[in-house]
Specification:
heterodimer; A: 372 residues; alpha+beta; Immunoglobulin-like; five-stranded mixed beta sheet; four-stranded antiparallel beta sheet; 4 helices; B: 377 residues; five-stranded antiparallel beta sheet; 6 helices; 17 strands
Chain lengths: 372, 377
Amino acid sequence: MHLRTRAIRVRVIYSVLSLLTCLFTIGIVTNRVQAADDGIGFQVKAVPPAQQEDQNSNYFKLNLAPGQSTQMSVDVLNETNQAQSFRVRPIVAVTNDQGAIIYTDTSKSRDSSLKLDFSKLGPETKVFKVPAGRIGRYTTDVTVPNQPFNGMVLGGFFVDSPSLNQTAERQKRSKNSLQLTNQYGFAIGAQLNVGNVAAVKPDLRLQVVHPTVLDQKGTVQGVVQNFKANAIQSHRLNMHARVYKRGSNKVLHSNRVSNMSFAPNSHLNVPVSWGNDPMAAGDYTMKITSVLGDKGARDYRVWHLTRNFTITPSQAKRANQNPNLKKNYLWLIILLIILLVLLVVILLVYVYKRGKRANNGQSSTQSRTRKR
Amino acid sequence: MKLMHKSFLASLSAIFLGLSTATLFSFSNVQATATTKILDDTSVETAAPGNTIASDAPTDATATGTSQAAIGFKEGGMQVFAPNFGFADLPLMATDTTYLNSDTVNKEKIQSPATSKYRLLTVNDYTAAKDWNVSVAVGQFRKFDKNAGTLDNSKVLKVSSLSMDLSQTRLYHGTPLTTDDFGTTDPNRIEWTRAYQYDNQDQPITDNGKIKGTNDVPLNKAPWQFEDTSDAPSVHNVSITPFDDSDATATDVHNFSEAEREPDAYYPDWTKDAHGDYTQHDYTQVEKEKHESILKRFNGTATKGLNGDAFRNNFKIIWGSDPATTNEGQDHYYGKGWWALDFHSKTAAELHVPTDSQVEGTYKATMYWVLSSAPIA
């Protein structure tokens, strides 16, 4: 009896140990693959049209003549175990303020120099459902208008999932905290070379300069535009922006931005910060020297961009909300000096008048004495 | 008369004395402000949350919360895995407010969790995408009303920026796990084979920014190499300022018809170059598609006051690849690998909240991760 009980105990212990071993092993395996399994739940892939030379790329890049059409497709694989909605939006490539060509701009604002808008060449925004584990294909015709045009049209498709985004938003989190919910998007670029692209050289101009507040600091931003239908690629553009009091040669503030690219027909802001110095109302000049490539390079080019601008008192007041602003006590010092000078003058006048009166008094006393 | 003179002089002296006192008082205010500023700065620099938070609060001032992460290409298509910076359970937003009112608490910088093993930013460059970028943007932190279960658009936490110091990350390289003796690989299972620590030493960098990926490189302490190391220490920090994304709306939902939906049979084509047979026996084709991943230079440190600005300016590229450049005498890694950035350091990611805007509560923001595959960059 005793032995039997013991045997049962041993069996139970073995069973528990085996179970724990299994669980432990599963845990290790799960850990090992976790990095790959916890993705966002979908993939996207470009399906290049037949005209595209490089069929392996995950973007679109092809030559089209005015009036010519092509078909572009984007596949979306739903890796979750539920049907999900996906959204594909045509976009136009723009340049961010660091000088990077980005394909994430889903806004409707467009650069004033843009003639051929990729999002208006046929593609439309579509939201569609894809069953679990299946692929949805978004297909669109892209047609270059039949009108004379040489240059690069740069855009693409932005893909995200509204339903997965909503799921992420609903995730339960701890209270009293700062919570960041991750949402994901894919951007697939599309480059259309229309006509003689090489004949079109990128060109820059300084459109406008305006004061603003960046990072709580008074700043002026020069809006530099590449108004030609060709891009500056491979981070080969450097800019040096300076701000002068109008008519002066002394640089007040400056900023350098290096290793920039520039999308065709786009613009970016070049900021020049006042730092913790107060911004004063008045007339100023911004000069930006932009250098493309190295000296000796075939496409080496330098732009000297200049624009006058004015900071109004209200703009200066708004810009000077910086809590770390250096206080300007010059006015107080000037006031003190004026008061000091006034005091000295008053004292001098007083002493002079007093002396004069004393002299007058003395001379009248003397004359009275003489008369006597 | 003499009395009058004396009183006049006394008045003048009084005015002057008054002015001098006022001036001195003004300057002493200036001094006080400056001191406060210095104290603020100091508290930022010497954040020692363990000393400042309540005894029942976590001593790791940073956060608990898991960090699941990454962004990248998965075999065949593109896939995203992004870090989940869990800034949860922070002293700043903890329920015990005693230290919220303390002037000595560092409230300016909130650090990301340091311990999570899943804080990875991962890229799988299986595809032949020659240029990919990872862009990040962050929306506004809006107060969460737990009773209504909604976000209050009128209560926005003023966050100056979320910054990521990529020099405090660690770079990993992984390969698909081999599942049998025949070299068959599973593209969904990663085996991390190499790790790199950013090493900001004064050493000549001559190979145009490629990751030195020879088999002889030790697992740790291999330097990352940037295209331009002269400014690498200052340019790899990325700050992202929250922007107003409250107007983001979805458009109508349409169902794809059966005709438009592709059968699963299409999918294997995506994965064919991941199978062992393909990689082992058709070197020509692999060679044709190969490319290498490098850490691209990061595009600047400027923080932006982006509220209300155009959406496009909010995205910062934090990572990317460049097309392969061969014949440089380097044994670079080519495709079929995973690259991951591990935000292992406490201060690798920081959220900056000005002291005057800290109001207790739960705030939620959305972080947008975008993986781009583009013909030009």
